[in-house]
Write a structure and sequence with these properties.
Blueprint (H helix, E strand, L loop, with lengths): L9 E6 L7 E6 L9 E2 L23 E2 L12 E4 L3 E4 L1
Antiparallel strand pairs: 1-2, 3-4, 5-6
Length: 88
């Protein structure tokens, strides 16, 4: 039996022990990080003048993730030769 959190957050299993009786087990299906974030565009292009002040917005990008909760959170980072590793 395969359980997928995206289809059902809860499931129920009936156990029938021999020679008789019934036991119901309630199962909470926890989400795993099984989807990758998807951007609205495959490639984003922009340009900026060299003298723009620090903090100037130059582009807006958007991504979404089909996972739920923390697994669906998208963290953005920008890497460049002079930027180090800055997270936004």
């Amino acid at each position: 039996m395969t359980l997928f959190q995206e289809y059902s957050e809860f499931d129920s299993i009936l156990i029938l022990p021999l020679p008789g009786g019934v036991c119901q087990v309630l199962v909470t299906v926890l989400d795993i990080n099984d989807y990758r974030p998807r951007f609205t565009e495959r490639v984003f292009n922009t340009s900026v003048f060299e003298n723009e002040p620090s903090g100037t917005s130059v582009i807006t990008v958007k991504a979404s993730d089909l996972d739920e909760g923390e697994n669906g959170a998208v963290l953005y980072s920008m890497l460049g030769p002079h930027s180090g590793r800055n997270k936004y």
